[in-house]
Design brief:
single chain; alpha+beta; Gyrase A, domain 2; RNA Polymerase Alpha Subunit, Chain A, domain 2; 4-stranded antiparallel β-sheet; 10 strands; about 35% strand; elongated
Length: about 210
């Protein structure tokens, strides 16, 4: 009989015992938990002003790698959103803005807590992520948009830092360990991962049935 049992769990990491689950399905779940569960990441950046030493491309890259808290119940992946718009809508994208303010006469570091989101549930997982150092007289002002994506498209959408599958003393028992980036709770990644694997298996079965027909 197949079963999943939580061995340990905290805010960042979860370990689950998989019993009676074929290796191919267990490994599929491991891979999906790493990069197959959708999470938010900054995808589009409009640079209004950037007088820092960091080029626009470098600034956009750093913003994209900031883990963003995710609410899968309220938002859609762009490809599955009813708007079907290239620019997106309030159901599939969230705007965040950052303005360092008037030029200062001191050197300072701009952190992720200065990113202001139009939705309180979609924001950087930490306030202490450094974005750029500003020298006296420098300023940045940006508008950026976060959307749901998957790590199979880009690593910035990875839902987990690590996802490992290890053997135990028992032949039919393995342990799946998942460490979240903070975008989702670790148990949310497991649940969403199970749903995703189930959907993919069902889609594959439908394809086989059509070929046989």
């Amino acid at each position: 009989m197949s079963s999943l049992e939580i061995i340990s769990k905290d805010d960042q990491k979860i370990a689950v015992k998989l019993k009676g689950i074929p290796l191919q399905y267990a490994n599929a779940l491991r891979r999906v938990c790493l990069n197959g569960v959708p999470v938010f990441a900054i995808d589009t950046v409009d640079i209004v002003m950037n007088s820092s030493v960091l080029p626009d491309e470098g600034l956009a890259h750093r913003l994209g790698l900031i883990p963003i808290t995710t609410d899968l119940a309220r938002f859609n992946e762009p490809s599955k959103c009813e708007c079907q718009s290239e620019t997106g809508c309030s159901n599939c994208k969230v705007m965040l803005v950052l303005d360092s303010g008037e030029e200062s006469d001191v050197t300072r570091t701009i952190f992720s807590d200065e990113l202001s989101s139009e939705d309180d549930s979609i924001k950087p997982v930490s306030d202490k992520i450094p974005i750029v150092h500003l020298a006296p007289g420098q300023r940045i002002k940006i508008e950026c948009y976060a959307r749901l994506g998957r790590g199979t498209d880009h690593a910035k959408w990875n839902s987990a830092n690590i996802s490992t599958l290890t053997d135990t003393d028992k032949e039919d028992v393995k342990v799946l360990t998942v460490e979240s980036t903070g975008a989702l709770k670790p148990e949310q990644i497991i649940v969403a991962g199970v749903d995703e694997v189930s959907n993919r298996v069902s889609q594959f079965k439908d394809m086989i049935d059509k070929v046989e027909a």
